[in-house]
Amino acid sequence: MKKIKVGIIGIGRMGITHYSILNSHSVIKITSVADTSGMVLFFMDKYLDGLSTFKDYRHLIEENRPDALIVCTPPNLHYPILKLAVENNIHVFVEKPYTTNYNQASELSRLFRERALVNQVGYVNRFNDVFKKVRSLVQSGVIGKIIRFRSEMYSNTISKPDDGSGWRGTRETGGGVIFEMSSHAIDLVNYIVGKPDKVVGTSYNSVYSKNVEDIVSSTFIYSSGTVGGIYINWCDDSYRKPTNKLELFGDKGKILADQHGFKIFMKEENKAEGYRKGWNSVYITDIFEPVPFYVRGNEFTRQLYHFIDCITGKQKSNMCTFEEGAKTLDIIQKMFTDYELNGRV
Predict the structure, then answer these.
(1) Which of 211, 234, 318, 331 could bond 157 through an S-S bridge, CB–CB 3.0 to 4.6 Å?
(2) Which residues in the chain land under pLDDT 70?
(3) Using CA atoms, how far apart are residues 340 and 204, in angstroms rounded to an integer?
(4) Model confidence, pTM
């Protein structure tokens, strides 16, 4: 099979992670990288053979002509990169939250769809074994109709006063806990429960950050009667690593889940799934599917291999398209609006 030429734009933590994973794929040849750091490019040039390096992503696209791009720049830079990519018929995997503007996201989704180009957003939780299983249980009605839910995320990302000088310090560049972390929690809701019809009760706090929010909560309401909430805190020093938590309460049972496993409470025995009445515990080691190369978690490899499978035709539909990413941005925009109209005292 002809090798797929891949370029990576943005060689920070996620860019390097994606580089190492893609480099393990038999049909991939990483041919180019772009970054504004001269030091990063110097070491890439020195230690990696056959790689073209660029300070300007436009030169990478024009001169290297990749088949696919991995975009890991700050969110506010995504739109012009993706516009140039679609104009050059390039498949794209882009880190969340995809853009910082819902209208731009919708436009890009339409353009990529019209040109039949593979487009994927890096909402990695969709590829986590536990959350995939929880979605399957919800869709098959194992815990019945969802009445209430709660999607939470915690980390110790911001642990001291921030003067707002970096890209994470301003909302215009995609900073703040809503764009940076809440987008994961919101997408998980969209993936497992569905997109809410209304957003109310949004509030946020700044703890260490000068210009953006560090903690946010909001309530999601559905026409079906389902109600849920999100709570995200990225300055909680009781957590060493970022943690997603999900609670789902249905009329037949309840699920408590995180990245590593879940507990399910059944009002009645479910022989089909093998769950007894009462509490049942399932660990990720009970259900995980192995991946060819491991970095940070199976889901990180699985999402990129899924992207490649969509390009080669091995996979017919993508699990996390730009259209799905735009749904999360729509909710984020509604949260900002709700806070401005109702959240201020």
Answers:
(1) 234
(2) 1, 345
(3) 11
(4) 0.94
Total domain count for the chain? 2
What the block records as the tokens of 302 is: 């699985």
**In the chain, how many H helices and how many E strands?**
11, 14
What CATH number corresponds to the domain at position 226? 3.30.360.10
Contact 72, 95 (CB under 8 A): yes
The answer to whether residue 322 sits within a structural domain is no
Tell me: do 96 and 133 sit in the same domain: no
> Is the same domain home to 207 and 275?
yes
Give the pLDDT score at 1: 66
Predicted local confidence at residue 42, as pLDDT = 93
DSSP state of 132: H
3-state secondary structure of 264: strand
Residue among 68, 28, 78, 85 nearest 301 (CA): 28
- The domain in which residue 227 lies consists of 125-293+327-343
